[in-house]
Amino acid sequence: MNVIFIEMVNRLGTIVTVAFILSRLDLFKRIILGRDINRVSKILMTVIFGAFGILGTYTGVPINGALANSRAVGVIIAGLLGGPWVGLGAGVISGLHRWAIDIGGFTAFACAVSTIAEGFVSGMLSKGYANAKNSFVSAFLIGALCETMQMGIILLLARPFSEALGLVRIIWIPMSMINAAGIAIFMMILDIIYKEQERLKAGQAQLAMDIAEKTLPYFRGEFDSDSAYNVAKIIYEMTDLDAVAFTDRDKILAHVGCGSDHHVAGDPVRTSLTREVLRTGEIKVAVHKEGIECSHGGCPLRSAVVSPLYKKDQMIGVLKLYRKRENAITETDINLAKGLAGLISTQLELTELELQNKLLEEARFKALQAQINPHFLFNSINTIISVSRMDPEKSRKLLLDLATFFRRNLEIDKAKIPLSKELEHVRAFVAIEEARFGDRIKVEINADDVDGIFLPPLTLQPLVENAIKHGLLPKDDGGRVRIDVIRRGMYAEIKVEDNGMGMDETFDTRTPNPEHVGLYNVDSRLRSMFGDGCGIHIASTKGKGTTISFEVPCQEVVQFESIAG
Known about the structure:
The chain is an alpha+beta fold. Helix content is 59%, strand content 15%. It contains 20 helices and 14 strands. The strands form four sheets. The protein has a five-stranded antiparallel β-sheet with strand order 4-3-7-6-5, with helices on both faces. A five-stranded mixed β-sheet has the order 9-11-12-14-13. Helix 15 packs across helix 17. It is flat, with a radius of gyration of 32 Å.
């Protein structure tokens, strides 16, 4: 049995190698990701995994007139990914092949039947697998179950029974374990495809947002040649595309990049592809020059994706992304075109630039807050683990503080929250930091009367974090942070003061700065909600410390609260 184990593991390496190669092919990725789930894609999946099963037969280990093989790997995966009919089809292909190459063999018919049955059964289990929390374990168990079923079918159909029983005793455990592991490994390889797609979508979303931020000033009024040229230039410079163009319903508005010598602003639309999109209102892709059908015979553009632009449900033109090579438009390009067209169409519907800036600022802030700092999380967990060895009760409190900290982070969708909630957020954060750094940091909170004071969520915590990180921790002996809440008539002044490193530089909190993004976000949200007079004020002296203060209107918030109640 040990020899069979070793031989099957060696042959399984071939199967895994082929699986990895398949996972790199664009066609296979499109099928697996389900972009084109139709009859053709299901047939392709059936054929691919049926052939995979045949490969498993040919890499089998001869034993007592039969084969210890990995045929089930491809068949079971076909069922898990494509459902019962795809699994059944792959099973028929590889099962009939097994019977045909060994007609008259004492296990040929039994193996053919069991292979078909495994494909169908795994397909029936596909929904349960899709909902499983641990896909690796689920794939392994389904593989082991199906292989055990195969052993039963061999005992039921193969004759003479004594030889069938002897064969099953030898191959049951090796085939069940090795093939189940192979199925689980294959599904892990496929999981890489899904994770790559997630990273790709995240990158596309970030790129689209960056482009939207840069192009926002050019959508104040009408979508004309000037605004279209500036937007096309920005997209062209921020991507690796060979050309970017805009048209309205009749003429070219702008064309930047390759082909600009004959795709000239003001000229009538040149390509049949664009006219087709303008006619149907649907996104179109051309993979070769003939699909574009440019009226200029020497046009170097070979592939393109064209997406319609809308304003108040009326199509006003198209966005076109070009490449100089045929078959060069990727899924990334198509998704980028869709995303940009959607963003641009939305921006065109916004007539007031101030509203656009507020929406974009909110989107940027939410995107930043949605990113949990892994270093803070990991450091917090390590701190709690260390504390738990000496003080279990304190570690329990720190866990509650960590939960409170992240629970408050989830309140970002709220316009305003009570100051008491924001202070609760600060206390949870400070408790974790004090556990990490001990006597190096000390935080005092003087806020006796906070009723009726509201402010945007995540206003104080970033200021306290900034004071600790940049003010106290660079000092060998640390320092102190003090938070004061002072009522002055209709307003409440809130101050965050530290005796840390201080700074001799000055900077404008209204201008985005990568080194002070937290201060910029806090300041912009306060000004947006309460007016320019409520932005943050910074006073700092090198070597002595920094004080950041701002005011919020109390009376306005009280009225807001009573109306809401």
